[in-house]
Description:
It is built from 21 helices and 28 strands.
Amino acid sequence: MEKKFWILDLSAEKVKDEDEIWIWSIGEDGERAVLRVKVEGQRFYVVPKADPLEAARKISNISGVISAQVVEKRLFGEKVSAVEVLCKPSKIEDVSKAVKDLGTLYEDDLRLSVRFILDNDVKPASWYKCFVEQDGKGGNGVNCTYRLIRMEKTEELAAPKLRVVGLDFLYEPKIGTPIPERDPVVAISIARDDGIKRQFTGEEKSIIKAFIEEVEGYNPDVIVGYRLNTSHWPYLLIRAKKLGIKLEVGRLKTEPHQSVYGHFSIAGRINFDLKDYAREITELERGTLEELARFLGLPQPKLQLDEFLYPKYWKEDREKVLEYSMWRASASLSIFQTISDHIFTMSSITGVPPDYVFSAAAGYRLENYLMEAAVRIGELIPKPVERALPTYPGGKVLTPEKGIHENVAVIDFKAMYPSIMLKYNISPDTVKRAPCPKGFLFIEEAGTCIAQDRKGFFTEVLERAVKEREAVRDIMKKYPKDSREYRFLDAMQRTLKVLANAMYGYMGWTGARWYLREGAETVTALGRRTITEAIEKAKELGLKVVYGDTDSLFVKYDKEKVDKLLNWIERELGLEAKLEKIYKKVIFTEAKKKYAGLTIDNVLDLVGLEAVRGDWCKFAKDTQRVIADLLLRGASKDRVISVFRERITELRNKNVDLIDLVIWKQLAKRIDEYEVSAPHTVVAKELISEGWKVTKGDYIGFVVVKGKGPIHARSKHYSKVDIDEVDIDYYIEKQIVPVCARILNVIGLKEDSLLKIAKTAGMGLESFF
DNA sequence: GCGAGGTAATTACCT
DNA sequence: ACAGGTAATTACCTCGCG
């Protein structure tokens, strides 16, 4: 029979020694189903050292090999004869070992589910018309199982109505971070997309059981929470085992199991960890659930309760903690609903299933996308190899003309690197180090050559992505802006853009299968050439260039001349540039990549300055923002100084929240990898000795307190600091004064004069001034 | 033993 | 764990100082 299904996930399963792919799906009628496909053979390739026919003959005699035949493939753009080996999936390791002396192996490192997706052009999070035969009844979360005969992609876009649950778990630690071998689960909060909320509290065994029953009863397609992969699932599995319960939250009564990219897989459901998603949003400073919710315009909790404060609250005000936990569950649900288009488009375009598409690093997502293209055009998929990390020159950054400028236009090249790659045909299979073979274009600045007689692999992929994006944008226009379809298509075109923009970085990534340093070098060299030419043209037109970085130019605004420049760029360089914004006023510090501007729409833009950095205390950041704002809006020097003085006075009088004095730094390495002491590492070590689990990637918040010795010797975790211990002078001299001086330098106020003013502020001499 | 001065380590930003 | 370019702070080392 014929049915339409949306693919939720794919898994490779073993059924009585037979390899099968199970496609977990949702029918257009809401049916939850498994489509089973028996997989007889898995293929890989051998590029033989000697005669291909002879190699094929030898290989076909190896046990486990179903067939071996000579095929024409491409390898880094060159035609090669390869032996396509088909073998039993379970035998692939043995067979590849047996043939490896005959030549170089390709694609034997792909997992069966990936192989299936590539070979059949099956994409998760997409709709298919399926020809199926009923295979079994349902039960345990699926309505039916089918044998899949064949499938065809359909035009449908948006996901079906999914059942989603947001989760949060609370544990009761004896001391420090909860430890699964020791501390019980004390509360489980559940928020369902149908509006029902549940919270299980009390005796551990009964609440875990109630949770499992709830999952079985509601049978969600999506389970979402924060830190599910790194904390909750491993924790719950240990607790359940201890209690003699099976954590059967998967369809067909399965437990969560560890999968690729550090992700936990739950059969038949999407297990989505919001922490993975948060990590990629550069606008977030620490990637907390609260920040993510705020970023997406969703409600905040009544009470901010981090892990360091929660044990105390759990003893003192249980209700508040439970309410907070419920907020986390609800927020997780809402966040998933808000970002689901992004997740599903990324998944369907790259072929990485939705539950781990954001657990995988951006490079792997793009790689999956490239692999799909490679199979389509017959390019062999190289294996990743360990490489040294040689670096190469990047973008060109101009020294800003320091001071306050009025009327400055910012001109940006649109997608400069992808455009250059397209224009020059730069790809891992088209670029070589000089000397140039015939028909190659020599790029002097990089000492490289680019093939011009054939289209590169990346060029083909980029062209396709650009075309597809244009098509999506065309279709988009047919729908109203607030429609379901418009939002989905918009997510789709953004995803295509993200992938296109990542191709340059991918080519320069030593971990990439299609790594080519010369290629990446050529891109940046041509980028520098392009911006340099644009600068010269701007000058020639009489535009004064005040700053520039990689693909942007800041010029004194003159509409006519800027228009001329933009036209010239399009005509002569074959690239697109646009007038990005106009600053009424902009302040350049003496440093590159740091400036403050006020746009013609009266928006304050702070770039690179401490106010936009996560590792300065909020009080200093707010002060810098206020000072920059005043200055850009034309306040007098006296007015700015008096505001500065007020802020210092507030600080001296301890008229600030302690939390605004916390300095946050990420633990970028494992604690034992640090070579020197730093405040955050010393504090982290102390936390660890007290039973807290802080690891690589965590943010450590500390406050500098009074005392002797280096800063790291008098930094304390914020949860343990009383405002009276704070070293106010440190905050004045090393936080507030420097960040204000950075801005005020342009009106001749140097750090030492600010320091002098600060010395008298709040010292009981206010009336004197 | 101690401060000056230079440099390495470290983080987080910009494009 | 997609790239390089950059600023900034703090820690640490070396050197001179008789």
